[in-house]
């Protein structure tokens, strides 16, 4: 599964690189924070436990192709940390599960308002992700571990997919584009598989990830000019 995902990602980037024109293409980097949680349903949890929140990193290289002046497509290849946290009612103890993914959002980028430099944008598309590692953090009392839900990288679902949506504000400087973005990923895949006989896991356990990012993009034409000037 992991090899197939990597091959698919490389194919997408190769296909887009062949088809696009440099004057409409941008490459860059993106960094920010996720505020992840997992949506659980049909599950009676311990009444001593409530949902908690935490922040985790999102780091990506990004590629944008503008098919028209205001409409284009963008792809990110990202390291994205998700998961959930559970606290006791008294907030004296917590159990955090962080799941680290290689993630690829693919989405339409639409500048709906603005001028030649300042733009307000809407992003809508989908994402694919594959878990590569996990980390568990217990605060204060390890004896409470049995009261919390658990994720196991070997036995539970590593693949994830869903909808990507975002709003952003960008400004085109002479040296490139700076963009501030608020995004939301709604997962469709269950990270905890459901056993219909034992029913020890929730019926639904999907990633829900609000995020805030900042990105820097530079037109490929600028990179070409810089390369020629050095020659």
Describe this structure in words.
With 231 residues, the chain is mainly beta. The chain has helices at residues 2-19, 220-230; strands at residues 25-34, 37-41, 49-52, 56-66, 71-88, 94-114, 118-139, 159-173, 176-187, 204-219. The longest helix has 18 residues, at 2-19. It is elongated. The model is unreliable at 15-22 (pLDDT under 50).
List keywords for this structure.
58% strand, 10 strands, 231 residues, 2 helices, mainly beta, eight-stranded antiparallel beta barrel, elongated
Structure at a glance:
By secondary structure, the chain is mostly beta strands. The chain contains two helices and ten strands; from the N terminus they run H-E-E-E-E-E-E-E-E-E-E-H. The longest helix has 18 residues, at 2-19.
The count of β-strands is 10
Strand share of the residues?
Answer: over 45%
Low-confidence stretches: 15-22
The side-by-side strand order for the widest beta sheet comes to 1-4-5-6-7-8-9-10
N- to C-terminal distance: 43 Å
Q: Which of globular, elongated, flat, extended, rod-shaped describes the shape?
A: elongated
Helix vs. strand class: mainly beta
Give the secondary structure arrangement, pairings included.
Blueprint: H1 2-19, E1 25-34, E2 37-41, E3 49-52, E4 56-66, E5 71-88, E6 94-114, E7 118-139, E8 159-173, E9 176-187, E10 204-219, H2 220-230
Antiparallel strand pairs: 1-4, 1-10, 2-10, 3-5, 4-5, 5-6, 6-7, 7-8, 8-9, 9-10
